[in-house]
Design goal:
Strands 1-2-8-3-7-6 form a 6-stranded mixed beta sheet, sandwiched between helices. Helix content is 44%, strand content 18%. By secondary structure, the protein is an alpha+beta fold. Helix 1 (2-17) crosses helix 9 (220-231). It is globular and about 70 Å long. The chain folds into 4 domains: 2-231, 2-Layer Sandwich (Cytochrome Bc1 Complex, Chain A, domain 1), CATH 3.30.830; 261-375 and 385-430, Metalloenzyme, LuxS/M16 peptidase-like (Cytochrome Bc1 Complex, Chain A, domain 1, 2-Layer Sandwich), CATH 3.30.830; 437-465 and 694-880, Metalloenzyme, LuxS/M16 peptidase-like (Cytochrome Bc1 Complex, Chain A, domain 1, 2-Layer Sandwich), CATH 3.30.830; 479-660, Metalloenzyme, LuxS/M16 peptidase-like (Cytochrome Bc1 Complex, Chain A, domain 1), CATH 3.30.830. The protein contains 33 helices and 25 strands. Strand 6 and strand 7 form a beta hairpin. Residues 38-177 form the Peptidase M16 N-terminal domain. Keywords: Signal. Residues 1-23 form the signal peptide. Residues 430-454 are annotated as: Disordered. Residues 193-364, 637-814 form the Peptidase M16 C-terminal domain.
Length: 884
């Protein structure tokens, strides 16, 4: 019977697949259902994980002119349930799945995505099919969500960079839908009704206006059959007329804005071809060439003419944005940076770009497409980008377009684009913070009725999927070596792409290893690694990387991404930079002045003063973690100080190197040993872990930030739990009840869902070898800070006084157990977790070890851990922004 069902499913899938390859093992299957839904399924066996992305071809382009945030508001309301699935059920289902469940609204589309273990694919599809069928939008529910979305608006409006971006859009795309961001405004949301949101959903959220992308460890043909069963009977609807785009000539304008950053920024922006233009690949390559580390914009930072320089591109379907950036120290004149940037862009327009940079940019862009395969979520994003934004059949089509770009085409585009008469320029100038001080209590106490703390009855199809918890399996089988010089090497072979990624670090702690009066030495040293090796200067070194399409960084933390065929060459270059850095004297003088300029702004910035105030309240006055650089300490450094610090701190027996990708472990060891084997350590290994600290006292702090309209709030305390303490498992499990699982967490439900006080709220335990810290953070309008803080305390006290409900405990365990396969779904996450475990001296399967603990924990275990280790009355509350 099973064979017959399997044959029937395969037969249905073949009918659906249309143009899909006929072979059963084809990695890609496509279909267009009778109702118009386009589906692409891509097999990626990196991990037992799947990403689903439902892309509705409606974003801020399609909204009414007076209501710019309508699409964004509908995105929010899609998480409040609909016919057949209540808000609480949706939240509980998403939480149980353990991965990412979110959405994003752009100008041209709104995307809803799951990243979840492959075992939950059926649940993800069922949820999205129900949401496509309809949406319930009551005025009461919209009123609650409006409070949260307005907090998101406040957060973004507190960012000077976002203010610049919004004004730039209005100038560059005046008279078109691109003239505003998809975010929306508080005024427009106040005028928006639930009926308007329902109308937008019913007009645009239809299968014939959607593209479903599924990527992961799935059978493409069988998955198409599942999609047909879930979505096939969703009716199609006629679509309204789409807006038209008539771009007028951009008029030159200069915007001047204050910023709370510790440094200033100069932006010069131009309109470029859009993602669906025939010239888009040319624009992509041009941006890569201008942003190259061998190009003149980046060279501004290497020559002391700016702190940093570069070029970036953002592409919307109908038009794009080219953005040159230069960074200058606080207190200095931005005009020399602006003039240098203008000269560079003028030269690009008149004389063209270096052909070698164009060719290097093409190779890099193609290599980056290949590395998208190194992440299940990244590959899904690449397919959605190609299909939705670029109007292509696949990411490979963009590869072909890039290959066809010529230097002449790039030069022609530069000449047509970089006309100063059509440039929008912005200068963001740092401003000082007001004087921080201790608060006297932030407003009067408020109370809000929270949602009932009762189990959510899931639909049968979901309840069955989450009823049983099993110990997760791991796809990782890393091979670990310790070289004779003490260097730890870990290799995890993967074959999903023809690339290799390397991540590594030298365990250091400048607060414990730099000499008194030499604060900032590590930052100066890190900057000097950019100047190549003793064998190859900066330009030669970058040229060697470009020749093999590699990306590399060196320093205390280092990395390499390289095509597998050039693995040995890439490792040789990485080792050359890491073990034999050039450290030229002129680079020391340059980095010293740059770091002094950075710190001159840093020590006066609201962000730094807020952070410093928090740490001073948490830690003893003499604690090494309170050390920080100043302009004076940096300028007091000598060249020999930097060289001595490098010689003392960089040692192989404090270094771990993780390799993930298409490589044989034995081959990898041979290559690494040849490149790094001659590295020697001198003297005993240093202690780089901070010492234990006593419990802190409760304090309330406020750091003024005139550029913010919303307060950033952190509630933190020292706890007596460290990273190897068994009590951490119960605390982590409880933290998933409090702060994990999207809407289903207590903090999210009480602070956002029920009261609309915040947009996001996060809680985390940061546990080191000898000390630990617990932090809850959120953003809120000044008048809502105390109410949000009161709810945090209420929820924590409830964790201490009552055992969590069985359903909450089951969900929290499911989140943590599912996190094991999810952590293996990209090369980066694999490398990061293996590196972390190795540096902590933990087994490389620590995720499985932790999962066993979580399975055995009980509700009383969690209650006792919170009662013993968390002190609700002892938080340091640090507020940055307007006075609460």
């Amino acid at each position: 019977m099973r064979k017959q069902l399997k044959y029937l499913a395969a037969a249905i899938a073949c009918v659906l697949a249309g143009t899909a390859a006929k072979a059963d093992d084809a990695p890609v299957a496509r279909a267009t259902l009778d109702n118009g839904l386009r589906v692409v399924v891509v097999r990626d066996a990196l991990a037992p994980v799947v990403t689903t992305e439902v892309n509705y071809l409606a974003g801020s382009d399609e909204v009414p002119a007076e209501f710019p945030g309508t699409a964004h508001a509908v995105e929010h309301m899609m998480f409040r349930g609909g016919p057949g699935l209540s808000k609480d059920q949706l939240a509980a289902i998403a939480a149980n799945m353990g991965g990412a469940f979110n959405a994003q609204t752009t100008q041209a589309s709104t995307q809803y995505y799951f990243v979840t273990p492959a075992q939950d694919l059926d649940v993800a599809l069922h949820v999205e099919a129900l949401r496509m069928r309809g949406l319930d939008v009551s005025q009461a529910e919209w009123a609650k969500e409006r409070g949260a979305i307005e907090q998101e608006v406040s957060r973004d409006l507190s960012s000077p960079d976002f203010k610049f971006y919004s004004q730039m859009l209005g100038q560059m795309f005046a008279g078109t839908p691109y003239a505003h961001s998809p975010l929306g405004t508080r005024d427009s949301f106040d005028k928006t009704s639930a009926a308007m949101l329902k109308q937008f959903h019913d007009s645009w959220y239809t299968p014939n206006n959607a593209i479903l992308v599924i990527v992961g460890d799935v059978d493409p043909q069988a998955t198409l059959a599942k999609v047909k069963a879930q979505f096939g009977d969703v009716p199609r609807r006629d679509l309204p007329a789409r807006p038209t785009f008539h771009f007028s000539s951009v008029q030159a304008k200069t915007l001047r804005l204050p910023t709370d950053s510790p440094y200033g920024s100069v932006y010069i922006t131009y309109r470029l071809p859009g993602a669906q233009s025939k010239d888009y690949a040319t624009a992509l390559v041009m941006a890569g060439a201008l942003g190259s580390q061998r190009a003149d914009l980046y060279g501004m930072g290497m020559e002391g003419k700016a702190l940093f320089g570069g070029f970036e591109q953002e592409a919307l379907p109908e038009a794009g944005i080219g953005l040159a950036v230069g960074v200058f120290p606080a207190g200095s004149d931005p005009q020399p940076v602006l003039q240098r940037m203008q000269a560079i862009l003028a030269q690009a327009a008149s004389k063209g770009l270096d052909p070698s940079l164009v060719e290097a940019a093409k190779r890099k862009a193609i290599a980056e497409l290949e590395t998208k395969k190194n992440s299940v979520e990244g590959l899904a994003g690449a397919w959605s980008t190609a299909l939705v934004e670029q109007g292509l059949d696949s990411p490979d089509a963009m590869k072909q377009a890039i290959e066809s770009v010529t230097p002449d085409a790039v030069n022609a585009l530069a000449k047509a684009s970089f006309d100063p008469a059509h440039a929008i320029t912005a200068i963001l100038t740092p401003q000082k913070s007001g004087t921080p001080g201790e608060g006297k209590g932030f407003g009067g106490a408020e109370s809000f009725a929270s949602s009932p703390d009762k189990p959510v009855q899931l639909p049968t199809w979901a309840e069955q999927a989450f009823a049983k918890l099993d110990l997760p399996s791991t796809m990782l089988h890393p091979v670990a070596y310790t070289l004779p010089n003490g260097l730890k090497l870990i290799v995890q072979p993967e074959s999903v792409s023809d690339t290799v990624e390397v991540m590594g670090s030298v365990q250091t702690n400048p607060d414990l290893q730099s000499l008194k009066g030499q604060d900032g030495v590590s930052e100066v040293l890190d900057g000097m690694f950019q100047f190549g090796s003793s064998r190859l200067d900066r330009m030669q070194f970058q040229q060697a990387l470009d020749a093999i399409s590699a990306q590399e960084t060196a320093g205390a933390s280092f990395s390499l991404a390289v095509p597998a065929e050039h693995f040995a060459e890439g490792i040789k270059l990485l080792a050359d930079n890491e073990l034999h850095p050039a450290l030229p004297k002129q680079a020391f003088a340059l980095m010293q002045h740059q770091q002094a300029g950075i710190w001159a702004g840093e020590v006066q910035s609201p962000e730094f003063l807020d952070e410093l105030g928090l740490y001073k309240a948490l830690l003893p006055a003499s604690d090494p973690q309170l050390r920080h650089a100043t302009p004076q300490s940096v300028m007091g450094l000598t060249y020999d100080n930097v060289k001595d610090y490098y010689a003392k701190v960089f040692r192989p027996d404090m270094t771990t190197l993780v390799i993930v990708g298409k490589v044989d472990p034995a081959q990898a060891r041979a290559v690494v040993e040849q490149a790094f084997g001659g590295w020697k350590a001198n003297g005993p290994k240093p202690d780089v872990d901070y010492p234990a600290v006593p419990a802190n006292k409760a304090v309330q702090l406020h750091t003024p930030d005139a550029s913010s309209v919303q307060d950033s709030v952190r509630m933190a305390q020292v706890i007596d739990v460290t990273r190897d303490d068994p009590a951490r498992y119960a605390l982590n499990l409880g933290n998933e009840v409090l702060g994990g699982g999207f809407y289903a967490s207590r903090l999210y439900r009480d602070l956002r869902d029920t009261s609309g006080l915040v947009y996001t709220v996060d809680s985390e335990f940061e546990l080191d070898k000898h000390r630990g810290r617990y932090t809850v953070s959120f953003g809120a309008d000044p008048g809502k800070v105390e109410g949000a803080r009161a709810l945090v305390l209420k929820d924590l006290k409830q964790m201490q006084s009552e055992p969590v409900a069985d359903a909450d405990l089951l969900r929290a365990k499911g989140i943590l157990l599912r996190r094991v396969p999810l952590s293996e779904s990209s090369f980066g996450s694999i490398a990061n977790q293996l590196l972390t475990y190795a540096e902590r001296g933990q087994p490389l399967d620590q995720g499985i070890v932790a999962a066993k603990y979580y399975l055995e924990l009980t509700a009383p275990d969690v209650q006792q851990a919170y009662a013993k280790h968390v002190r609700p009355e002892a938080f340091v509350t640090a507020v940055k922004g307007p006075a609460p």
